[in-house]
Specification:
- With about 700 residues, the chain is mainly beta.
- The protein has one domain: Maltoporin, Chain A (Beta Barrel), CATH 2.40.170.20.
- It contains 7 helices and 39 strands.
- It has a 22-stranded antiparallel β-barrel.
- The protein is globular.
- The chain starts with 12 loop residues before the first helix and ends with a strand.
C-alpha cells in the first residue's frame, strides 16, 4: 500500500482471531450448504412469484439494455438513453454469465475501466488514466455508502465484496462526477446497487473450487417478516498463491469470510425504508513477510418518500468500521544506517455519514435536486519504525451541499447545471460545478456534451506521511536527514477541468452502442520533489510531496452490442487514451512526472454470449491490453519499466440441469500459463496464473 504500494496489511493479535473466525466459517459452510439443498422451506404464493431461479434469468434485448434505469448521473432514476454522461451498466445477468467471483473481476465487464490484477488479492482499477497502485481519482459507492479510504484516497479492493448474485447492477461512469458525489469523483464513479430483499426471497446456495480459487461458498436466505422483506447471506472465499516471474511461489494466498443482511419495507404507500449491514474478516499472505489482515463492518439505514407527482426526498445514515494491518519486513543495519525491525502498520478507521437529498419539479420546465451531507472520520494509524503518520490519531469532518437544476429548453433538449460546495479539514472549501446538455435526436438517439470541474483532495498519505531514512550522523562534516519521504502540510487539491461529448443510440432491433470523447486538463498533480540539500554528504533526502505536475489527457471510448442471432449476442469495446503529464515550468519532480500513471494507451474487449440447446450456455471474453509504462522500480528516480501487452481469454460453460440446479465450469486467463498485469519488471514481479474452477448452484 505504501512506498512500493503493492503491499497489504500484517500480523497482529487481532489477526489471530480474524484467521480463526474465517476458518470456522469454512468448516461450517459445506455442511450448511448441504442442509439447505436438502431442506426446502415452504413458500407463500407471493414469495414464489417473486423468486427467480437460475433458469429463469434471461438476457435483456439490446433495446431493453438501453432503457435500463440508472441513478448515478442525476441522483434520480432515468433511462440510460436520457443520461448525458459516459455511463455503462453491468447487469446482474452479465455478472452471472461471466463467472466472476469478486467485484473487481466483475468490473472487467466495463469497457470504460482499466482493470489490472496486481497479485492474488490486490487490484489497480481506474477510469481515463492514473491507474497507479495508489489510484485515487475514482469514487466507489455500494448502496450509497462511499468506500474510499482517507488513508490514501483510493479503494481497498481486497475488502470490497458482496454476494454477487444479490447485485442488481453496477453503474460505471467514466468522467467527473464531483457536482453530485464530491471530492475524488475525478475520473469516474462506480455505483454498486444491490437487489431489494423482496427480490431475493427463498434460498440461494453455491459451492465452487479449482486450482486458484480453492474454495468459494455462497449462502443466502430470504423471507417475509410481516410487511417487510429480509435476506441474510454469507460468503467464504479461499484463493491460492500466484507465481513470480522467476517461477517461485509468490506466497500471497488469502481467505475472507463475510456475511450480512438487508431488510426492506413500506411505512406507507409513499414511504419506503431500508436497513442493511455487513461484517467481514480475513487474512492474506504477503510474500513471506508475514500474514496481513483486514476486518470491518457497516450498517446503513435509508428512508425514502415519494410524492404522487414524482417529487422525492431521502435521508440516509451509515456507520463503517475498518481495520487493516500491514506487515513490514526487517532491514539490517549498514554503514550510516540503523536498520529497522520487522513490524506492522495498523489502521483503524471509523466513519459516520449523514446524507439528505430532495428532488422536485419547479414549474413545467425545471427539475431541481439538492442535498446536504456530513461525514466524520476517526482514524488511528499505530506508529511503527518504517512508516508513520503524524499525528497518529486524527479526527476529521467533511460537510457539503449541492444543487443541480435540469432545465427543459425544448421538447427534446435539456440543460443541466449545478455545483457542489464541500469543506474538508486540509484545504477548506472546494467547488465542483458542471454543465451538461442533452439532445435526443430521436427517442432512440442521444447526443450530449459536458464541461465539469472536479477535485482530488489531500489524503493522509499526501499530508501526514513520514518514512524515516534510518540514517545516523557520522563524524563531521556529515549530517543526515531524519526522513526519506514525507507528506506536505501545504499539499493542495488536484484539479481537473473536463470537456466531454458523447453519442448513444439504438440503431435497430439488433444493434446498440455508444461513443464518448473527452479532453481533460489537470493542474496541481502530486509530485515527489527533492528539497534543498543542506548536508555535504550526497543524500538528497527528504523527498516531499508537492503539486508540481500538470498535463492533459484525451481519448475516446466505444461500446457496441449486436444480437447476431436470437441465441447469440456479441459485444465490442475499444478505448483510446493519450496522456501528456509533465513537470510545470520552474518546478521539479524526482521521477520525471512518471510516478502517477501506469496506463495502457489502448484496450479492446470482445464478448460472446450463446444460449445453446438442452440448457447449455457458453460465454467467452477476449481482451487485449496495450503495453503499460510503469515507474515504481527499486532504484527510484525516473526509472521506467513496462508491462508487456497481452491477450486474455475468460470463458464459462453452464448446464441448467433443472429449474433450480446449475453446473458451470469457468476458465480465466486461458491463453497463458501466467502473465503480468502490473508491476515493475523484476524477478519478484507477480504473474497472474491460469485459473479453472467448477461451480454448483442451487436457487429457488
Amino acid at each position: 500500500m505504501f512506498a512500493g504500494a503493492d503491499s497489504t496489511p500484517g500480523t497482529t493479535p487481532q489477526r489471530v482471531a480474524s484467521s480463526s473466525l474465517a476458518r470456522d466459517w469454512r468448516s461450517l459452510a459445506i455442511p450448511l450448504l448441504c442442509c439447505l439443498l436438502a431442506v426446502q422451506p415452504r413458500e407463500s404464493p407471493a414469495q414464489s412469484a417473486a423468486v427467480e431461479s437460475t433458469g429463469d434469468l434471461k438476457q435483456l434485448s439490446v433495446d431493453e439494455l438501453m432503457n435500463v434505469e440508472v441513478t448515478s448521473v442525476a441522483r434520480a432514476p432515468q433511462r440510460l438513453l436520457q443520461a448525458p454522461a459516459a455511463i455503462q451498466v453491468i447487469t446482474a445477468e452479465d455478472i452471472r454469465r461471466s463467472g466472476a467471483t469478486s467485484i473487481p473481476e466483475a468490473l472487467r465487464l466495463a469497457d470504460n475501466l482499466e482493470v489490472a490484477q496486481i497479485n492474488a488479492h490486490d487490484w489497480a482499477i481506474s477510469a481515463r488514466g492514473f491507474n497507479a497502485n495508489l489510484a485515487n481519482k475514482l469514487l466507489v459507492l455500494i448502496d450509497g455508502r462511499v468506500v474510499y479510504t482517507p488513508l490514501y484516497g483510493g479503494v481497498l479492493w481486497n475488502v470490497q465484496d458482496y454476494l454477487l448474485e444479490d447485485i442488481d447492477r453496477i453503474e460505471v461512469i467514466s468522467g467527473p462526477g464531483g457536482t453530485l458525489w464530491g471530492a475524488n469523483a475525478v475520473n469516474g464513479v462506480i455505483n454498486i446497487v444491490t437487489k431489494s430483499a423482496a427480490d431475493t426471497q427463498g434460498v440461494y446456495a453455491s459451492a465452487a473450487g479449482g486450482n486458484e480459487l480453492r474454495e468459494q461458498d455462497n449462502l443466502r436466505y430470504g423471507t417475509q417478516l410481516g410487511s417487510a422483506a429480509l435476506r441474510v447471506y454469507g460468503k467464504y472465499t479461499d484463493y491460492g498463491d500466484e507465481e513470480t516471474s522467476a517461477g517461485a511461489n509468490a506466497g500471497d494466498g488469502w481467505h475472507m469470510a463475510r456475511g450480512g443482511f438487508r431488510m426492506d419495507g413500506e411505512a406507507s404507500v409513499l414511504d419506503r425504508w431500508t436497513v442493511q449491514g455487513d461484517l467481514y474478516n480475513g487474512t492474506e499472505e504477503d510474500g513471506g513477510i508475514g500474514e496481513a489482515g483486514q476486518s470491518g463492518g457497516n450498517v446503513l439505514a435509508r428512508w425514502t418518500h415519494t410524492a404522487p407527482g414524482g417529487d422525492s426526498m431521502s435521508l440516509q445514515a451509515y456507520y463503517d468500521h475498518t481495520y487493516l494491518s500491514q506487515p513490514l519486513a526487517a532491514s539490517p543495519p549498514a554503514q550510516f544506517y540503523t536498520g529497522f525491525p520487522a513490524a506492522s502498520l495498523t489502521d483503524n478507521l471509523d466513519t459516520t455519514d449523514l446524507d439528505f437529498q430532495h428532488h422536485f419539479a419547479w414549474g413545467a420546465r425545471q427539475s431541481l435536486t439538492w442535498g446536504l451531507e456530513y461525514r466524520a472520520t476517526h482514524e488511528a494509524d499505530f506508529d511503527v519504525s518504517v512508516v508513520r503518520f503524524a499525528p497518529p490519531v486524527l479526527d476529521q469532518t467533511l460537510y457539503s451541499g449541492f444543487l443541480q437544476d435540469e432545465i427543459l429548453l425544448a421538447s427534446n433538449v435539456s440543460l443541466t447545471i449545478g455545483s457542489k460546495l464541500e469543506h474538508n479539514d486540509y484545504t477548506g472549501f472546494e467547488t465542483e460545478p458542471s454543465g451538461r446538455i442533452r439532445w435526443n435526436l430521436t427517442p432512440d438517439q442521444l447526443v450530449w456534451a459536458a464541461v465539469s470541474r472536479a477535485v482530488r483532495t489531500p489524503s493522509r498519505y499526501d499530508h501526514d506521511l513520514v518514512v524515516p531514512s534510518g540514517l545516523v550522523d557520522a563524524p563531521p562534516p556529515y549530517q543526515f536527514p531524519t526522513s526519506y519521504l514525507q507528506g506536505n502540510p501545504n499539499f493542495e487539491s488536484e484539479t481537473l477541468i473536463a470537456y466531454e461529448v458523447g453519442y448513444r443510440a439504438v440503431l435497430g432491433p439488433k444493434l446498440a452502442g455508444s461513443l464518448s470523447t473527452f479532453y481533460n486538463d489537470y493542474q496541481n498533480l502530486r509530485s515527489t520533489s527533492l528539497t534543498p540539500v543542506t548536508a555535504t554528504y550526497p543524500f538528497p533526502y527528504p523527498v516531499v510531496f508537492e503539486n508540481n505536475l500538470e498535463g492533459d489527457t484525451y481519448g475516446f471510448e466505444l461500446s457496441a452490442s449486436y444480437q447476431a442471432l436470437e441465441w447469440w449476442r456479441l459485444h465490442l469495446g475499444y478505448d483510446l487514451l493519450r496522456e501528456d503529464i509533465h513537470v510545470r515550468a520552474g518546478a521539479t519532480d524526482a521521477t520525471g512526472a512518471t510516478n502517477e500513471t501506469a496506463d495502457p494507451q489502448q484496450q479492446v474487449a470482445l464478448r460472446s454470449s450463446m444460449d445453446l440447446p438442452r440448457g447449455i450456455s457458453f460465454d467467452a471474453r477476449l481482451r487485449w491490453v496495450d503495453t503499460v509504462w510503469i515507474n515504481n522500480g527499486p532504484t527510484g528516480g525516473a526509472v521506467v519499466g513496462i508491462v508487456p501487452s497481452y491477450f486474455g481469454l475468460d470463458s464459462r460453460v453452464a448446464w441448467q440441469i433443472s429449474r433450480k440446479l446449475e453446473l458451470s465450469l469457468t476458465g480465466q486467463n486461458l491463453l497463458h500459463a501466467d502473465h503480468p498485469e502490473y508491476g515493475f519488471p523484476s524477478p519478484a514481479r507477480e504473474q497472474i496464473v491460469r485459473s479453472v474452477f467448477a461451480r454448483l448452484t442451487w436457487g429457488y
